[in-house]
Design brief:
Function: Catalyzes the dismutation of two molecules of 6,7-dimethyl-8-ribityllumazine, resulting in the formation of riboflavin and 5-amino-6-(D-ribitylamino)uracil.
Catalytic activity: 2 6,7-dimethyl-8-(1-D-ribityl)lumazine + H(+) = 5-amino-6-(D-ribitylamino)uracil + riboflavin
CATH class of the largest domain: Mainly Beta
Number of helices: 4
GO molecular function, one term: riboflavin synthase activity
Helix content: 10-25%
CATH architecture of the largest domain: Beta Barrel
Organism: Thermomonas carbonis
Shape: globular
Strand order of the largest sheet: 1-2-5-4-3-6
EC number: 2.5.1.9
């Protein structure tokens, strides 16, 4: 599990095709990396991935075809900045919201506008995702826990304070870029409970 509070910004160093899927090499950048272990989970732009190799400044993960197809990881350019978060400990503060690292789908960062010192982003998403997104609820965008300011039938809006822009890969986000979306866990479980109750 993760919190959606980005611990560091790294970059995609390499993507190597292996047996039909891919191995990604990721430079850790500003991510605190002490005590990393093989098999550890790290969220990369919101995708929970398993460390299969590492050295002092980088780690490698294997990305399945499912991950490559349903997230942005299969299409990102080498060198692009990445939001990184190591899995939470039971003693960690939960400053964001509970994030599984299981991306629900893709959306588009459609429009950026300044709002005083904040940056507001309009994110266009399919109804299959929007049905779980609520006004003033939580959403995870590229691994970042954000509060939904507005939502309608075509998308939602979030506001990023200067700290968020300065300490995540959002500083490099451009209009038209695809982003990974994970909806709130509670919304999915409520839907499942209601669906099974009908049978």
């Amino acid at each position: 599990m993760f919190t959606g509070l980005i611990a560091g910004v790294g970059r995609l160093a390499a993507r190597e095709t292996r047996g039909g899927d891919a191995r990604l090499a990721i430079e850790v950048g500003t991510l605190p990396f002490d005590g990393v272990q093989l098999g550890e989970s790290i969220a990369v732009n919101g995708c929970c991935l398993t460390v299969v190799e590492f050295d002092a400044s980088s780690f490698a993960v294997d990305a399945s075809n499912e991950t490559l197809a349903l997230t942005t990881l299969g299409r990102l350019a080498i060198g692009v900045p990445l939001n990184l978060e190591r899995a939470m400990l039971p003693t960690d503060r939960l400053g964001g919201h509970l994030v599984s690292g299981h991306v629900d789908g893709l959306a588009v960062a459609a429009k950026r506008r300044d709002d005083a010192r904040a940056v507001r982003w309009r994110v266009e998403a399919p109804m299959t995702l929007l049905r779980y997104i609520a006004h003033k609820g939580s959403v995870c965008v590229d691994g970042v826990s954000l509060t939904v300011n507005e939502v309608d039938d075509a998308g939602f809006e979030v506001a990023l304070i200067p700290h968020t822009v300065g300490h995540t890969a959002f500083h490099a986000l451009q209009e038209g870029d695809a982003v990974n979306i994970e909806v709130d866990l509670l919304a999915r479980y409520v839907e499942r409970l209601l669906a099974t109750k009908e049978h």
